[in-house]
Fold this sequence. Notes:
Layout: E1 2-9, H1 13-25, E2 31-35, H2 43-46, H3 58-61, H4 77-89, E3 97-99, E4 101-109, E5 114-121, E6 127-137, E7 161-163, E8 178-182, H5 186-196, E9 201-206, E10 212-215, H6 220-228, H7 231-255, H8 257-272, H9 278-281, E11 294-297, H10 300-306, E12 310-314, E13 317-321, E14 324-327, E15 332-334, E16 337-340, E17 353-356, E18 359-360, E19 368-369, E20 373-374, E21 380-382, H11 391-412, E22 416-419, E23 431-432, H12 440-443, E24 451-452, H13 464-473, E25 481-484, H14 487-506
Parallel strand pairs: 1-2, 1-6, 2-3, 4-17, 6-21, 7-16, 8-9, 8-16, 9-12, 10-11
Antiparallel strand pairs: 4-5, 5-6, 13-14, 14-15, 17-18, 19-20, 22-25, 23-24
Amino acid sequence: MDHFDVVIIGAGLSGIGAARRLQDACPGKTFAIMEGRDAIGGTWDLFRYPGVRSDSDMYTMGYDSKPWLEQKAIADGPSILAYVEQAAIERGIDRHIRFGHCVKSAAWSSKHARWTITSECSHGSETAQVTCNFLLMCSGYYNYEQGYTPEFKGRAAFRGRIVHPQQWPEDLDFTDKRVVIIGSGATAVTLVPAMAGKAARVTMLQRSPTYIVSLPAVDPIAKAARALLPEKLAFRIIRWKNIQFQRYIYRQTRLRPAKVKQKLLGLARKHLGPEYDIDTHFTPEYNPWDQRLCVVPDGDLFKAIRSGKADVVTDTIECFDADGLKLKSGKALGADIIVTATGLNLVVLGSVEFSVDGASVNFPDTCSYKGMMFSGVPNLVYTLGYTNASWTLRSELVAEYACRLVNHMDALGVHQCTPCLRPQDIGMSRRFMIENFTPGYMQRAMHLFPRQGDRDPWQNPQNYALDRQMIRHAPLEDGALQFTSSLEQSASSRSDKARKTKTKSAT
């Protein structure tokens, strides 16, 4: 059985970033990446629907150690995938990846201070095992097996084709077809302009609106900075500028939600014209950033609507029928293809079954330590990004922290670090790990995740400035994170001490 100092689960944006950080901060450590699929890229390799792109700018979603050099700040999926692949290959990280290894369980032994990881293999043997001292979960929280689709009455009666964006078929030809896209989130607003050019007509059918904001695909300030400054310096300035802009906008949505709401609706009205029914189709009932804002580069969604190739219908589905959809308003929508852009399913820590010394870990019973470790679970760090900023900003902080832990344990001469509730923490109130964020995929799954507490270090603030202080600058030894030796190491130390005492007595 192979043994590694560190095992990373997941070869997507977070996993490759963690491996790069590990190479820089812990150059002597051996590591492997376990990847259930057969390719690098995670989400950016999985999703293949037309127009797939990021809704975060790549200057903040890219790695701090690898400047984003493409022109488009709001990048398409293939460009992001190529970036992640290059980030792995240029460091030789791809040679450390075990593809087709879907991790099913991870068992911790305090006696040996190591994890035993069991994978189902798509190539060769049925199962495989490796051991490691430290485990870094970079599997994200999406269920890669299937997306979320509600039960629709009469679905079987529809004579056309029904597809979910997560399982986009390569052979789907929508040329001159009537397409109805169910949903109003980031996937739906991406699909509409991407399909409108070839389809006969594209209708976005939404139960309720989403805040949609247009940003330039090419950041003009970034373009100027790159023309005037050295590459790396320009990247750092642009990254800093975008981080501050994200923080400012999010803070305004918390302090002045009504003002931000009117600003966003005003921008939509400017794109679509005074005659368009913004109140019905683009005015959500919730405040900005209670759910993510949908970014449309260069206003492509608005352009598709203005061109007459696409439209938005705000209504509720009564049922499917042979020719399309019947709505509760009494209207009918004819369709040749129906796309159910109805959301995602979440999983907790990659659906891996964890145990500590033979006892199963039930994560809702644990308390989240700094949003990345869990009470009573040793040597495990989980990467959970931001809901209100670029995922990578936090994933890189988490990887940095994991490397600090590994090096600190070496300096102390111990093999185990475990978050433990202190006496004053036992009775604290517990809340969902992510709060004040209301999209359906979160509401359906948050009860399955670890809880956060009401005090540090048991909180998950989802705030980059606070996280930098808490993760990067706070001391590792804070009374809650316990550093100990393995039982085997402790027994050896006691034996050595006994031998020395016996020798001393004999002399």
